[in-house]
Amino acid sequence: MLGGLVSALSRRFSKNDGNKPVAGGSQAVRNLRLAKLGAKSGGRYTIHQARRTFASAQRRESLDTEFQIRTAEDVVKELGNMKGALMKIGQMASYVDTGLPDHVRATLATLQQDAPPMSASLAGEQIERELGKPPDALFAQWDPVPIASASIGQVHRAITFDDRAVAVKVQYPGVGEAVGADLRNADWLFGMLASRFPGLEAEPVVAEVKQRLAEELDYVAEARSQRYFSRFFHRHPFITVPDVVDQFSTGRVLTTELATGARFSEVLKWEQAERDLAAETLFRFSFGSIYRLHAFNGDPHPGNYLFNPGGKVTFLDFGLVKRFNQAETKLFEDLMVAMVIKRDNGAFRRVVEEAGILPQGAPFTDHQIEQYFNFFYRYVLKDELITIDHEYAAMGVAQLFNSSGQHGELMKMLNVPPSFVVLQRITLGLVGLFAQLETSANWRRIAEELWPFVSGPPSTAMGEEIEAWRAKQGQSRFGL
Question: In this predicted model, which residue has the larger pLDDT, 398 or 161?
Answer without folding.
Answer: 161
